[in-house]
């Protein structure tokens, strides 16, 4: 019953998919949708039972230096809300390299959406998956700040709980990767000040280090055995040159006892992270 009501609300929501690079996403949009058809779709065109929503390039972004790593313009899909949902907004940050020049792209996108009617929202949801989920954690309070205090604003981060985990070689692959982003892009300036004042900028990419300061209701959806994190953060090729993890990380039933023990140790780290959620999750 509750679910039915929610689905109906979703249909009524203005739906915006903000994309920092081309299409991408946890649902592998680019595999299942034909990008050139999408780009040429007319508003609300129905193709084979799918609602096709055209891509809007943010033309004003170039002048603000808010372009993607390859120089292309950021973009979004926008489907306006209807009826009682006309002023309900769902903004979804796609899984992409949004955070690389994320701040300027995010600001250019929000400015344009506000001018398209989001300033009249009576409720607004910021959502995102994977890298988009991480961007939600980083922007949730900022998004909330766009609206007057009486407007209901919530965030949902799907598979965005990237952990500062120790990999199978005892290193910290993901921390090293974020360190590179901080150095390459000077991204630290856009990370929460009260995290960067206390620890290295690279650590302030991790939700576990910034959750305590988030004031807006934020819901996480994350599996304990996050496939991407196991394959790219815990047991990447660089940490497993002999390929001992190759089979296990693709099919858990082939893991030996030692590997299971390692994964379960990591999953308890994930459970520790859930404690942080109690603090942030006050919906
Ligand atoms: C995508 O759509 C265009 C235009 O309809 C078509 O020419 C092209 O072959 C399609 N590409 C794929 C991979 O289906
Ligand atoms: C961080 O910022 C939040 C919100 O501005 C504030 O409530 C909190 O006390 C700050 N935390 C620290 C450790 O400064
Ligand atoms: C996973 O490995 C088991 C045991 O070797 C095998 O029976 C199963 O088919 C594999 N599953 C997949 C999806 O490959």
From TrEMBL:
An annotated GO cellular component: plant-type cell wall
Entry's EC annotation: 3.1.1.-
Localization in the cell: Secreted, Cell wall
Gene Ontology process terms (BP): cell wall organization
Family, similarity comment: Belongs to the pectinacetylesterase family.
Keyword Hydrolase listed: yes
Organism: Dioscorea zingiberensis
This protein's name: Pectin acetylesterase
Signal peptide coordinates: 1-24
Record function comment: Hydrolyzes acetyl esters in homogalacturonan regions of pectin. In type I primary cell wall, galacturonic acid residues of pectin can be acetylated at the O-2 and O-3 positions. Decreasing the degree of acetylation of pectin gels in vitro alters their physical properties.
Keywords (A to Z) from UniProt: Cell wall, Cell wall biogenesis/degradation, Hydrolase, Secreted, Signal
Pfam families xref list: PAE
EC class name: hydrolase
GO molecular function: pectin acetylesterase activity
Keyword Cytoplasm: no
